[in-house]
Amino acid sequence: MHLSSDYDVFIFDCDGVILDSNQLKLNAMENALGQYPVQYVRSCLDYFSKNFGRSRYLHVEHFLKNIIQCKPENYQDEYDDILNKYAGYCTLLYKEAEINTGFIEFIQQVKIDKFVASGSDEDELRNVFSERGLDIYFSEIYGSPESKTNNVKKILERGYTKALMFGDALGDLVAAEKNKIDFIFLSELSTAPDLVRESAFFKGNEVKNFSNLLL
């Protein structure tokens, strides 16, 4: 696929786009929920896999309020416990996650500004990118608890006029659409590709991975 030279900024999701971390994060959530009945854990993982791009805070809130219907007096303790366990697992998995096929070669060719807008925890993501030497490729790295839509908006408010977002999930597509920017779907690592393809917002711009975008 040929990319237009008119773009003045590229915006990247992280999980399933830069890093092959989607399945690892599902495993992390499964481990963090290990004390709960298996049927509830499966429901949470199904919801999670269909809603990559949303923050962990929303996933845990959904699990406690809608799946197990946690008692109000227990909510905060269980919420904090799950998030702390999940964060610990994520710190480990991010050190193991492979970089997506063709990403380094692609990013080294890009001469315009580049940003990350992810549903992952912002502080955690910045630390991981710094440790793995990926931060050098980006002007800034944004994550949760701010929403992806708002993070994309924050980037565009810097004065860019023609932006392109790379994502693998419906949440990425929605963030691009709400900000009226172009979108490319990287499908190889997506956990719910049909949700993207069947969306009314999807315009058919799809590649397997970054190797399909190399010059």
From TrEMBL:
<comment type="similarity">
    <text>Belongs to the HAD-like hydrolase superfamily. CbbY/CbbZ/Gph/YieH family.</text>
</comment>
<keyword id="KW-0479">Metal-binding</keyword>
<protein>
    <recommendedName>
        <fullName>phosphoglycolate phosphatase</fullName>
        <ecNumber>3.1.3.18</ecNumber>
    </recommendedName>
</protein>
<dbReference type="InterPro" id="IPR050155">
    <property type="entry name" value="HAD-like_hydrolase_sf"/>
</dbReference>
<comment type="pathway">
    <text>Organic acid metabolism; glycolate biosynthesis; glycolate from 2-phosphoglycolate: step 1/1.</text>
</comment>
<dbReference type="GO" id="GO:0005829">
    <property type="term" value="C:cytosol"/>
</dbReference>
<dbReference type="InterPro" id="IPR023214">
    <property type="entry name" value="HAD_sf"/>
</dbReference>
<dbReference type="GO" id="GO:0008967">
    <property type="term" value="F:phosphoglycolate phosphatase activity"/>
</dbReference>
<dbReference type="GO" id="GO:0046872">
    <property type="term" value="F:metal ion binding"/>
</dbReference>
<dbReference type="GO" id="GO:0006281">
    <property type="term" value="P:DNA repair"/>
</dbReference>
<dbReference type="InterPro" id="IPR036412">
    <property type="entry name" value="HAD-like_sf"/>
</dbReference>
<dbReference type="InterPro" id="IPR023198">
    <property type="entry name" value="PGP-like_dom2"/>
</dbReference>
<dbReference type="Pfam" id="PF00702">
    <property type="entry name" value="Hydrolase"/>
</dbReference>
